[in-house]
Amino acid sequence: MIKEIIVVEGKDDIAAVKSAVDAEVIATGGFGYNRKFIENLKLIAEKRGIIILTDPDHAGENIRKELSRHIKNCKHAFLPQGKALKKGDIGVENATREDIMEAIKKARPVIADKRQEFSKEDLIREGLVGGPNSKEKREKLGDLLGIGYCNGKQFLNRLNNFGITRDEFVRALERIEEDE
After folding, report:
1. Which domain range does residue 155 map to?
2. Residue 16 C-alpha from the chain's centroid
3. Do 20 and 59 fall into the same domain?
4. Tens-place pLDDT, residues 11-66
């Protein structure tokens, strides 16, 4: 059983996560949550912890950011868009049990102290921004590191804020090169 409560967007997401892992799961109802819901999540975060697993789309990212703004001690789990896509519909409910388990296993807390382990120059040097295949490479790397896909600026923030080490970064890049 997973100690933390997993926060998802909807009822279908609850069913998908519960079929993948033994955990308590609650839904935000999309953006339909209120102040009382946030206060309840804060209490849950203090007592058991929470893992935010939202859809890998714009709305899901906005919900994640909003919850994170109010709840400081939560972990983040990410599903790559390609693993949450079915017939043009993106959502946690479309992911396989294995992909949901993997995303939760890779859940990471935001590091409280700001750190600058990585710079924009690192991303440029490794072809993660400004190159013809940068988007695809960020997608693969985000999946391997468990920080999801995003644009270059957000990717840099996630590398630094989710405590990715230089060693993890290098090993993941080496895996991508081996696969190519």
Report:
1. 113-180
2. 16
3. yes
4. 999 999 999 999 999 999 998 899 999 999 999 999 999 999 999 999 999 999 99
Write the burial class of residue 114 (CB in 10 Å: 0-12 exposed, 13-18 middle, 19+ buried): exposed
pTM: 0.88
CB-based burial, 139-172: b 16+ in 10 Å, e otherwise: bbbbbbbbbbbbebebbbebbbbbbbeeeebeeb
66 and 122 assigned to the same domain: no
CATH number of domain containing 68: 3.40.50.140
DSSP string of 17-79, one letter each residue: HHHHSS--EEE--TT---HHHHHHHHHHHHHT-EEE---SSHHHHHHHHHHHHH-SS-EE---
- Distance (Å, rounded) from C-alpha 90 to C-alpha 145? 21
Residue-wise pLDDT for 51-92, tens only, equals 999 999 999 999 999 999 999 889 999 999 889 989 889 999
* Domain shared by 129 and 177, yes or no: yes
